[in-house]
Amino acid sequence: MENNVLTFKTSINCGSCIKAVTPFLSEVGGINHWEVDTTNPAKILTVETSGATAEEVLEAVQKAGFTATAL
């Protein structure tokens, strides 16, 4: 399956936030790698996927208690 890169504006703004969202994103199948640029004012979450959808990523972030908007 082709790799895709999804980007989201989030409320994930620090290391503790990243730690909190990690188990939720780990549950989503098809995510190869993800990272949050906490230095960017928009707190950009970049997700490399081989099957996970934007909706699945958004749901995981929201379950962790954060907001996210697809870019």
UniProtKB/TrEMBL annotation:
<feature type="domain" description="HMA">
    <location>
        <begin position="3"/>
        <end position="69"/>
    </location>
</feature>
<dbReference type="InterPro" id="IPR006121">
    <property type="entry name" value="HMA_dom"/>
</dbReference>
<dbReference type="InterPro" id="IPR036163">
    <property type="entry name" value="HMA_dom_sf"/>
</dbReference>
<protein>
    <submittedName>
        <fullName>Heavy-metal-associated domain-containing protein</fullName>
    </submittedName>
</protein>
